[in-house]
Amino acid sequence: MRITVLAGGIGGARFVRGLRRAEPDAKITVIGNTGDDLWLHGLRVCPDLDTLMYTLGGGVHDEQGWGRSDETFSVAAELQAYEVEGTWFSLGDRDIATHLIRSQMLRAGYPLSDVTAALCRRWQPGVTLLPMSDDRVETHVVLADDAGRRAVHFQEWWVRLRAEVPAAEFAFVGIEDAAPAPGVLNAVAQADAIVLAPSNPVVSLGPILAVPGLRAALTDANAAVVGVSPIIGGRAVRGMAEACLTAIGVEVSAAGVGSIWADLLSGWLVAPQDAETQVPSVTVRAVPLLMSDQDAAANLAAAAVALSQELA
Amino acid sequence: MRITVLAGGIGGARFVRGLRRAEPDAKITVIGNTGDDLWLHGLRVCPDLDTLMYTLGGGVHDEQGWGRSDETFSVAAELQAYEVEGTWFSLGDRDIATHLIRSQMLRAGYPLSDVTAALCRRWQPGVTLLPMSDDRVETHVVLADDAGRRAVHFQEWWVRLRAEVPAAEFAFVGIEDAAPAPGVLNAVAQADAIVLAPSNPVVSLGPILAVPGLRAALTDANAAVVGVSPIIGGRAVRGMAEACLTAIGVEVSAAGVGSIWADLLSGWLVAPQDAETQVPSVTVRAVPLLMSDQDAAANLAAAAVALSQELA
Q: Contact, A185 vs A216, CB < 8 A?
């Protein structure tokens, strides 16, 4: 069975780790968000791809959900001592090794998909990990405060400003000229099941679905697309999805998020307490959504795949 | 008083630190070797400039003589886990912060001299630290073994091969097109005293003196040029200068090294046990050369400056 998952960072990574456990014989392809990527200190940092890679490769800081286990921060402390820009985003030492290799390969002309494959030779994630695009796309946030209209990189809003300044708009800079990375469209077309992982709908899945050709590929796919709600009982399971949804005028609810994708989805998994959720022309099913451990994540992933196959 | 010093790494840095103590009111300019510089993991590493900067700025690993104090090696361990090339040169985490800033500035178009000045704003070395050139010059070593004629970067010979493969020749790649960095020729022309620090004569002072225009500036200078022998009793004080001198057919002795520079030198400081040294047309003076502590280094530096002024 071929399963294709669209995924952001922490939630997506835990979901895919569960999926790998639930479907050990499946050929899993993960299309990861690169809209969070940024250049920092001359390093290309890909937070979502790395969270996927580290989580699936056993190198993640498990409690935190992102970054490396047993991380140290000598480089970051020194960068602060030099008083350079950008130290609000703290890069761990072990993590920096990944960025050094990536940056060097990108500068040598390798596309991000090749670089990701090279890094995965070490991590052996057990899935094919693809960036949504080899082209540079960056999510910027137009701020809605009294300081005048201005935009910052998503990471600056998220990490430096802690999403406390309201967002007026999200712009995926470069998206018009971005092409799906090699393998992405095939992974959608040839899948037996397609799942939108429980990731931030606006800034994680949003950029992936905005890559030209992706939505059409999903609607044309033979497999049924099933999504997993990142909202339980009107609250985001983690992260700051509320702030993102509010910014784009979407209700913070399983129904609200499901309805953004009504044209794509065949099935929509919601939490038991949201069982009454209705999304026009979408089959809604209630299952436990909390990935409190790897078994729970596996059960959730199995339910998503089962619903996709049922609706095919 | 304006004092200009040509210096390599450890010996040069300790000498200049002594000079700063001996002549606290002098305006000291240090012209550092950049022939050892290399690109590694996408980082521009300048071993001699950094040894000078860290030593004079109080950040050096004092016993080792190079690298940062309290250094950690998380990044290096990770690079090894990725099995990338170049891990024979172990970069410390704290040191990497310096290279990140340097590399980013170089890529942004700043010349190495500006980058060095920017880094020194943190370290406050108390001297003006200039690279010998803003142009890329790299010392390569033609190996003399049975594996056929081949050349490696100096650092690969020195660190990876531990100079155990005999060197047939040293090539300063790029030197023909290298110009002295801004301030270098002026620092020589306007100096009241000029000193060649006790650095490796072949691969540390050799590249500096090979920068087009440098030798002429030294012979035209008003100040007398005084050198400090890096050889005591037929042995290099530290490092592997023997292997380098042998490769270029120079006797490993205070006389041998002094005679390479006979056309430049007015004075030559040798160790007491080498007091009989003669270098044609050069004033040889015997003083304690071992920089066993900062006082000894200060005394040596004071003797060098005194001899230069005496011979002016």
A: no
To the nearest whole Å, the CA of A172 is away from the closest chain B CA by 25
Amino acid (1-letter code) at residue A218: L
pLDDT band at A150 (very low <50, low <70, confident <90, very high): confident
Question: Any idea what DSSP says for residue B35?
Answer: T
CATH number where B120 lies: 3.40.50.10680
Kindly state the percentage of chain A with pLDDT values over 70.
Answer: 100
A146 pLDDT above the threshold of 80: no
Residue B236 domain boundaries: 2-59+112-135+176-311
pLDDT in tens, A215-245: 999 999 999 999 999 999 999 887 678 889 9
A151 occurs within a structural domain: no
Q: What share of chain A is helix, strand, coil (3-state, %, to 5)?
A: 40, 20, 40
Q: How far apart are CA A147 and CA B122, in angstroms?
A: 33
- What is this model's ipTM? 0.93
The contacts of residue A81 (CB under 8 Å, 6+ apart) are B97, B122
Please check whether residue A231 lies inside any domain of the structure: yes
Task: Kindly report, residue by residue over A93-107, the tens digit of the pLDDT.
Answer: 999 999 999 999 999
Helix and strand numbers (H, E) in chain B are 12, 14
| Residue A158 counted as domain residue | no
Q: Which of B74, B96, B119 sits opposite A94 (nearest CB)?
A: B74
Cα separation, A145 vs B305, whole angstroms: 63
Domain total in chain A: 1
Whole-Å CA distances, B309 to A8, B283, B312: 69, 13, 5
- Total-model pTM: 0.95
Model pLDDT for residues A158-174, shown as the tens digit of each residue: 899 888 888 999 999 99
How far does B43 lie from chain A, in Å, by closest CA? 8
Of the candidates A41, A72, A122, the beta carbon closest to that of B93 is on A72
Q: What is the largest CA-CA distance in chain B?
A: 58
Specify if B97 maps to a domain. Answer: no
Cβ proximity of A278 and A236 under 8 Å: no
Which pLDDT score is estimated for A148? Answer: 75
